[in-house]
Automatic annotation (TrEMBL):
Keyword flag Ribonucleoprotein: no
Gene3D superfamilies: Phosphoenolpyruvate-binding domains
Keywords, ordered alphabetically: Lyase, Magnesium, Metal-binding
GO molecular function, one term: lyase activity
PANTHER family associated with the record: CITRATE LYASE SUBUNIT BETA (PTHR32308:SF10), LYASE BETA SUBUNIT, PUTATIVE (AFU_ORTHOLOGUE AFUA_4G13030)-RELATED (PTHR32308)
InterPro entries linked: Aldolase/citrate-lyase_domain, Citrate_lyase_beta/mcl1/mcl2, Pyrv/PenolPyrv_kinase-like_dom, Pyrv_kinase-like_dom_sf
Organism: Actinophytocola gossypii
Protein name: CoA ester lyase
Classification lineage: Bacteria, Bacillati, Actinomycetota, Actinomycetes, Pseudonocardiales
Cofactor(s) annotated in UniProt: Mg(2+)
Length: 338
């Protein structure tokens, strides 16, 4: 059987374009559905053209007495629905749960050829990925699969964040990592009960004006997830895999959802989870480069010729580094248009 390594190009050294190890497939939104919920399952075919990735969720939000129905529902959906170019992922139960072994055995042997990526929650360190990697290799061999399943880790424990670089490098199957802000908040003993996003108490104020300490200060809300997202992005890019923001739980607050997604996009994430159809459109908008930015990027690239030296464009200095920044945006636009 081919090893997953055979499927990935080696990292290019000194490449003029951003290095990419994983073959490009759009994954701006990973749209979650509960495969054991008949109403949701019936809607999967109509979601296929709308989402880049559809994920059958077996873990949290599926009650203990519905785990088996969810697993069986996903097998049925994977067999019956034509996913065309849309990826089918699953989130299995955590490695310390009583369900994960059956999740992996059933899914890989029954519908392993239909699945693209297995999302593993609550990853504590590289040993969790090693375990999944070996088990997948055994199950793929048993099922006669010729295409290796990829693995995506959720970064949602303090230990996982402390070891994110090792997790990102743990296997050639690694496709990416998502921030899981709800479990991470609990693991870290943060004092927020929200799923992602900000908190009105986490803010910074400007200095007081004169002697009046209470009036006239401007208040800015801070991003609770900035450190973790930045660290995750560095770990993923260094390993040649993809970083994602995870869930945003206040479905009604589309403004805050868009802000959170955009912060993650600007920091380097390629996509986010969508928990409701309304969030699909938000993610598509945020994680597709703005046409004005793309036009500017192309102007800089054209003006920079062979990409070396310096030019002035609209009063702004461009050089070897800015042309690389522009290539990131232009390449993403080209890939999404292809
Ligand atoms: C996602 O799984 C989270 O815990 O935020
Ligand atoms: Mg979680």
């Amino acid at each position: 059987m081919r090893s997953p390594k055979d499927f990935f190009a080696p990292l290019a050294v000194g490449a003029p374009e951003p290095v990419r190890q994983i073959p490009f497939r759009p994954s701006r939104m990973i749209h979650f559905f509960d495969p054991g919920n008949e109403r949701m399952a019936a809607k999967v075919p109509e979601m296929v053209p709308k989402a880049d990735v559809l994920l059958g969720n077996l873990e949290d939000a599926v009650a203990a007495d519905r785990k088996e129905a969810a697993r069986a529902g996903l097998v049925r959906i994977a067999r019956e629905v034509d996913f065309a170019d849309t990826q089918l992922w699953t989130r299995v139960n955590s490695l310390d749960s009583p369900w994960v072994l059956d999740d992996l055995i059933t899914l890989v042997t029954e519908v392993g050829d239909k699945l693209d990526v297995i999302m593993v929650p609550k990853v504590e360190g590289p040993e969790d990925i090693h375990y999944v990697d070996r088990l997948l290799a055994q199950l793929e061999a048993r099922a006669g699969l010729t295409r290796p399943l990829l693995v995506h880790a959720i970064l949602e424990t303090a230990s996982g964040v402390a070891r994110v670089e090792e997790i990102a490098l743990a296997s050639p199957r690694m496709q990416g990592i998502s921030l899981g802000p709800a479990d991470l908040a609990a693991s870290r003993r943060m004092k927020t009960t929200r799923v992602g996003g900000g908190h009105p108490g986490y803010l910074v104020r400007t200095d007081p004006v004169g002697d009046d300490l209470s009036e006239g200060r401007v208040t800015y809300q801070q991003d609770l997830w900035h450190y973790t997202v930045s660290r995750m992005v560095d770990a993923c890019v260094a390993a040649g895999i993809l970083p994602y923001y995870g869930p945003f739980g206040d479905i009604r607050d589309t403004v805050a959802c868009e802000d959170q997604f955009r912060n993650a996009y600007l920091l380097g994430c390629v996509g986010a989870w969508s928990l409701h159809p309304a969030q699909i459109a938000i993610a598509r908008k945020v994680f597709s480069p703005d046409p004005g930015e793309v036009a500017w990027a192309r102007r800089v690239i054209a003006a920079m010729g062979d990409g070396t030296g310096a030019v002035m464009l609209d009063g702004k200095m461009q050089d070897d580094a800015t042309v690389k920044q522009c290539q990131v945006i232009a390449t993403l636009a080209d890939d999404l248009a292809a």
